[in-house]
Amino acid sequence: MAKKVYAGLVGYGTVGSGTAEILLKHKQDLFEKTGFEICLKTVADIKIDTTKLDDILSLCQNVTKNADDIINDPEIDIVIELVGGYTFAKELILKALKAKKHVVTANKALLAIHGAEIYKAADENGVSIGFEGAVGGGIPLIGVLKEDLVGNNISEVFGIINGTANYILSAMEAEGKEFSEVLKAAQEKGYAEADPTFDIEGIDTAHKITILASIGFKTLIPFDKVYTEGISDIKQVDIEFAKRLNCKIKLLAIARKRDEYIEVRVHPTMLPKSEMMAQVNGVFNAVEFIGDMVDKTMYYGRGAGGRPTGSAVVSDVVSIARDIAIGGVGRVPVLGFAGEYDYHYPIRDIKDVRSKFYLRFSVLDEPGTLAKIAGILGEHGISISQAIQPDERAPGEVVSMVFMTHKAVTRDIMTAIGEIDGLDCVKDKTVAIRVKEIV
Amino acid sequence: MAKKVYAGLVGYGTVGSGTAEILLKHKQDLFEKTGFEICLKTVADIKIDTTKLDDILSLCQNVTKNADDIINDPEIDIVIELVGGYTFAKELILKALKAKKHVVTANKALLAIHGAEIYKAADENGVSIGFEGAVGGGIPLIGVLKEDLVGNNISEVFGIINGTANYILSAMEAEGKEFSEVLKAAQEKGYAEADPTFDIEGIDTAHKITILASIGFKTLIPFDKVYTEGISDIKQVDIEFAKRLNCKIKLLAIARKRDEYIEVRVHPTMLPKSEMMAQVNGVFNAVEFIGDMVDKTMYYGRGAGGRPTGSAVVSDVVSIARDIAIGGVGRVPVLGFAGEYDYHYPIRDIKDVRSKFYLRFSVLDEPGTLAKIAGILGEHGISISQAIQPDERAPGEVVSMVFMTHKAVTRDIMTAIGEIDGLDCVKDKTVAIRVKEIV
User: Fold this and answer.
1) Which residues contact A289 (CB under 8 A, 6 or more apart)?
2) If DSSP codes are grouped into helix, strand and coil, which group holds residue B129?
3) Which residues of A are catalytic, by number?
4) Number of Cβ within a 10 Å radius of residue A236
5) Do residue A153 and residue B30 have CB atoms under 8 angstroms apart?
6) What does the alpha-carbon distance between residue B363 and residue B379 come to, in Å, rounded to a whole number?
7) Alpha-carbon distance B404 to B391, whole Å?
8) Which CATH superfamily is domain B350-435 in?
9) Which superfamily does CATH assign the domain made up of A4-138+306-326 to?
10) Measured between CB atoms, does A287 come within 8 Å of chain B?
11) ipTM rounded to 2 decimals
């Protein structure tokens, strides 16, 4: 039995330093849990902060600007990639795999888009790639799908998997402020990046659901077919209507497997407050998996941050180290299923998806408006479950009128909205937010 | 690589049949996920229902009344024990381990009390014992603690881990009925057993927290030192006061590790409705683990039932089969830590534990009562955060008066209650329910 396993870490940012901290601080604890020593031998970072060299050197043996020093080190078995991005990180991972190093990464963007190539390279080289840290920060999700729920046919994966977007929506609700103001405050507090596009436009969420769905449903998911809608158009008035409807607006990732197709989508969603998922506030994340045997299960925790994500990265490192120690590499297939990485199911076009909708119309307060709009919805087979008219009359002014629909096909909703937005009495683009039924 | 792994199952009850169903129904799926075949070869049950023999034989190759047929079968690697109880199950497991069979069990009572002997026997014989199904039904908890959260020092494990008790408390709240009436209805619906003692008196919950805490805190926990208080004394009036206080009453298991001691206790607890845990209703379970790196994480799902618990049992079977397939048995230590099974920490006496308390006094509605009681509490250093007096005066009648305390030492609370219950104006035993602060 190997008594020492050496790792090298590339990318000493938030998650990189969190990971290094855990490996050092918990060295003895990890030894008690595994029976062997996990040594962080080398840290590589091209933009290494030389004033922090002493700090970093207290966590490992060597610091370098050149990641090749790790890949070329025959003593190192595990390469931890925490650089992010598509270009350098991809090259690095492929190079490491070819050098027969096991890889641990938290790079969801890379895996969502270039996963197939990377998973294949790992298999071809007889090494493992772990990416628990790529989704849901410290919440165990990948391991749970691959191992703990192995006895299930997973039909549904959904959740809140972007802390920045959830923080903004929670703050809009708590503080009554508009999106742009809350975003600015979040940026100042470090909860949102200078360029927040990936987080607020749902792209990061789409990366993550692509990975989760591919494991849950035993098929690759083509990232470019994931319908993605962000939260930047959410207005305070919608948050207020949601409250009146006893709902919260959350940016949800939803993936469903049916016999004939898979649905994968990311969009703002009205959730009844009675759902556990609606209680997930601030930077916290939560994911629900539904399996045919286990039924509904939910996982909740911090979806980002150096230590929580570092906790996930370390769990991958330990898992690979355990495999190395017993000489049993490749114990669990990369995506949890053996065989070709392929697209086994068609992805359903968002236009064909059926949902309940919240529709907010900006209309002139004049007689006959409700009837005109309801008429167009009816022509397209959309039935209304509830209508909220303004509390007070404001003749000649633009007011908000809200309809809640029964389940309708998205295509019909879009066509109807197109016609409604052409009416003279409609003064602004209609807002449509999907409503999650209780599963 | 082994291409076939054979299992034998002893005890064909609810969980046994759920497990067998999964192994058969998902045989192909499990093959795709693992690359090998898992065969349920033999089912043993001393009370086998001979009219169901054909059904059972559709799930396996042999049915027998004699568990030894499984233990003596050289082809069988994994023995699944789903008999329950302490006597036969213990003998069976020890016999199986000695015969170098891996064991999977969901027998929490047995492990809580005789765990040390069983874990040691597994180690001595170089085989594994899996017990994911012992706690939280289908919710991944044991695997999460042992593997996914391996990079953490766990400081707190708490949750709702008995579906029967939670169902009864939820129904009392929803239906406004008293405990005994709700219990009777639960028994008729099959949610409570004919003898419900283990569930309603917190004993089953104590078994489960003993197991979770031993893994989380890397030490055996002496079951007889777990403070255990059930829900049979909870009255509808307490549920109603909880509602007024924006709380719910839940039967919580709480385990905490501090530097010098461990606290392990089971008791009804008032939880602020804003806590996720308070949203766990009916037969559902939820557990929170707090780690120094990952912070707060929560796991939610069905805590019982043939298929959910079967899902957990199958995950253990698959995990052991994977180990067998790669020749790497003993990859993860039985309790998640290598070394002796011993009692490493003192367990704190419940009398020394500090909690906030809800105290309900049954008092004569007469002047000076509140002052007398408050005076006694004050003498014992217990300060009051809130007092609820009856809305209407009812001179000479017995009414409920509620005090919420700040944190106080349990011993002081008990002494004060003893004195208060001796007052002339106090007409019934004082009810004390602990209040969980938000962590």
Assistant:
1) A144, A145, A149, A152, A154, A156, A157, A216, A296, A297, A298, A299
2) strand
3) 208
4) 16
5) no
6) 20
7) 17
8) ACT domain (3.30.70.260)
9) NAD(P)-binding Rossmann-like Domain (3.40.50.720)
10) no
11) 0.96
Cα A401 to Cα A249, A260, A370, A404: the distances in Å are 18, 38, 8, 10
| Domain boundaries defined on chain A | 4-138+306-326, 142-301, 352-435
Looking at domain A142-301, its CATH architecture is 2-Layer Sandwich (3.30)
CA dist A172 and A175 (Å) reads: 5
Tell me, yes or no, if the two domains B142-302 and B350-435 fold the same way. Answer: no
Q: CA-nearest residue of chain A to B334?
A: A33
Q: What amino acid is encoded at B298 in this protein?
A: M
Q: Which superfamily does CATH assign the domain made up of A352-435 to?
A: ACT domain (3.30.70.260)
- CB B223 within 8 Å of CB B253: no
Q: In B, residues 41-100, which contact A (CB 8 Å cutoff)?
A: none
Given a cut of 80, whether residue A339 has pLDDT beyond it is no
Give me the active site residues of B, please. 208
The ranges of chain B with pLDDT < 50 are 1, 439
Contact B318 A153 (CB under 8 A): no
Query: What is the distance between the terminal CA atoms of chain B, rounded to a whole angstrom?
Result: 48
Contact between residue A403 and residue A387 where contact means Cβ atoms under 8 Å apart: yes
Measured between beta carbons, the chain A residues lying within 8 angstroms of B300 are 276, 296-300
Nearest CA in chain B to A278: B276
pLDDT score of B56:
84
Q: Looking at the domain that runs over B4-136+306-326, which CATH code has it been given?
A: 3.40.50.720
User: Can you say how many angstroms the Cα of residue A127 is from the centroid of all Cα atoms in its chain?
Assistant: 26
Closest approach of B212 to chain A, Cα-based (Å) = 15
Residue of B nearest to A288 (CA): B300
Burial (0-12, 13-18, 19+ Cβ within 10 Å), A141: buried
Whether the per-residue pLDDT at A326 is higher than 90: the answer is no
Judged by a CB distance cut-off of 8 A, whether residue A173 touches chain B is no
Q: Please give, rounded to a whole number of angstroms, the shortest distance from the CA of A149 to a CA of chain B.
A: 7
Q: Which residues of B234-250 are buried (b: 16+ CB within 10 A; e: fewer)?
A: bebebbebbeebebbbb
**Torsion sign across C-alpha atoms A52, A55, A56, A61:** positive
**Residue B381 φ/ψ region, left for φ over 0, alpha for ψ in the -120 to 50 degree band, beta for the rest:** left
For the segment A203-227, the average pLDDT, to the nearest whole number, is 97
Q: CB B149 to CB A311 under 8 A?
A: yes
Which amino acid is it at B306?
G
* pLDDT, average across residues A229-233: 97
In the numeric block, which tokens belong to residue B95?
């016999």
| pLDDT for A1 beyond 60 | no
For range A374-379, the mean pLDDT: 96
* Residue B215 · residue B336 · CB < 8 Å: yes
Looking at residue A438, what is its pLDDT?
53
Residue A320 has pLDDT above 80, yes or no: yes
Residues in chain A, overall count: 439
Looking at the complex, report in whole angstroms how far the Cα of residue B2 sits from the nearest Cα belonging to chain A. 12
| Distance, CA of B372 to CA of B420 (rounded, Å) | 8
For residues A360 and A370, give the distance between their C-alpha atoms in angstroms, rounded to a whole number: 12
How crowded is the C-beta side of B295, counted as CA atoms within 13 Å?
Answer: 18
Looking at residue B419, the DSSP 8-state letter turns out to be H
The fold adopted by the segment(s) B142-302 is: Dihydrodipicolinate Reductase; domain 2 (3.30.360)
